[in-house]
Amino acid sequence: MRFTAPRRRHRAIAATLALLTSVSVLAACGKSEVSTTADGKTVLRYQGSTGQVTPYELAADLGYFSKISLQWEGDTTSGPANIQAAATNQVEFGSAFNGAVVKLIAGGAKVTSVLSSYGSDDKTFTGYYVRDDSPIKTARDLIGKKVAVNTLGAHHEFITREWLHKEGLTEDEIKQVQLLVVPPANTEDALRKGQVEVGTLGQVFRDSALERGGIHPLYTDTAIFGQASYGTYVFRNEFLAKNADAVQDFVQGTARATRWLQVTPRDEVLARFTSIIEKRGRNENIELLKYWKSSGLPTPGAVVQDKEIQIWIDWLVRNGELKQDQLKAADLFTNKFNPYANGTYQPTSGPTGEAVAK
């Protein structure tokens, strides 16, 4: 198996510029008219993830939507690709790491975050693993070595660079740590074969690898930032302005489904996920579901918090990729549609507004 090495930091910037260029070039390629169902519901096109059930797919199954209907357009390959599809009108919404969302908006894309989409808690997180027999013990040991990430310019690159910075490496030393794009499904194999020194593993890929043993984390996102939301769902501003009722329905239903995941026993969640995957008939592997542990979102109802956006604005300013005061977190997201933020439900209530036992 061979992987192409990126040109370190400037490669990530180039990838972002390519993304922004494609946003402008492809913007006219998407559908111009919004589709509706026979009963008048607004159709929201989306990209899913094979073998997994997203909160909005769960919301549809739970009957939490009344004004929208979801239409699957295939599976996404990464967060940046997903929000690119949303920004270029290939789908109505997408989800990505907040740092990638900030960079997209800074580059001129007209999108707004409306709901947290993923994060880390004490059960669900991303780890950066080395083999038990690896000589890599510290951040400085990674100079000149390879770290496998799923894509450039997103969560795993940001976390890695932040850890290296916190551990005292200079910018010149950080540039010498090579980030290799490796599909998540191949990362464990690349790590065990010595093709990379560190492998980024999360969700089912982490837990299945840990079952086989022989690896341990060098650092984790939770150890650096604690329990936090790391990504958001975004809609195009134009779509949001013209279809506010549809976006409101998406947010309220997805927020409630996220809350359902936060308060429902794991066995019940897995049974529901299994049923959803089997009903949609995409020939997916349901064996991976056994590794699901939590929603990964620590905030009730996936309410977006200012600090979860601002931290990445500050990070990009520090790295010279944004100007001071170029962006303000409060201008990049809205919680007005979320029932756990707009007064519809008490912040810690259940998916139908009921009190939840502690």
**Chain-averaged pLDDT:** 89
Parts with pLDDT < 50 across at least 5 consecutive residues:
1-30
SS-derived structural category: alpha/beta
Instruction: Please give the order of strands in the largest beta sheet.
Output: 7-6-8-5-9
Number of strand elements: 10
What is the radius of gyration computed over CA atoms, rounded to a whole number of angstroms? 20 Å
Order of helices and strands: HEHEHEHEEEHHEHEHEHEHHHH
Fold and architecture overview:
With 358 residues, the protein is α/β, with parallel strands linked by helices. The chain has a 5-stranded mixed beta sheet with strand order 7-6-8-5-9, sandwiched between helices. A 3-stranded antiparallel beta sheet has the order 3-10-4, with helices on both faces. Strands 1-2 form a two-stranded parallel ribbon. The chain has 13 helices and 10 strands. Residues 1-30 have low confidence and may be disordered. The longest helix has 20 residues, at 244-263. The protein has helices at residues 8-26, 55-62, 79-87, 98-106, 155-166, 171-175, 184-192, 203-212, 221-225, 237-242, 244-263, 266-280, 306-318; strands spanning 42-48, 68-75, 93-97, 111-120, 126-131, 146-149, 178-181, 198-202, 215-220, 228-236. It is globular and about 60 Å long.
